[in-house]
Amino acid sequence: MSMTQVYQWCSWFKDGRKSLQDESRSGCPNTANNDWNTARVDELIKVDRRVKLKEISLKLDIPKTNVYEIVHGKLGYRKVFARWVPKVFSDEHKRQRVEISQILLHRCHLGLAGTIVPGTSFLNTSSLEMKLGYP
């Protein structure tokens, strides 16, 4: 905090201010971050995962800063490879990850970690690498 700000606070308390909280200010309240706009933004993202914040802002006539707050703060989306994805895995995603991890762990214990299984026949990648001259 700058010395100017400290002097200003000292002056305010000498004049009778008793609270550390900001005083209410006049101005327009933020009405864009409501449940209705949140639902509309979520619907636009679900329709097109590649939609940009600026496009959402123009379609819904909401300031871009408020769209950012809705998308990142309320809905919990983040951009991954130019697509909006939820930050939290669904139960189905978690179940799939556990199943795949168990299959890979089982293959590792059987010594099949370097084996590709196309259909029913096995192909050992170490012998393939030796034939192709790879280390």
TrEMBL record:
InterPro entries: Transposase-MT_Hybrid. It comes from the Eukaryota. This is Histone-lysine N-methyltransferase SETMAR. The lineage of its organism: Eukaryota, Metazoa, Spiralia, Lophotrochozoa, Mollusca.
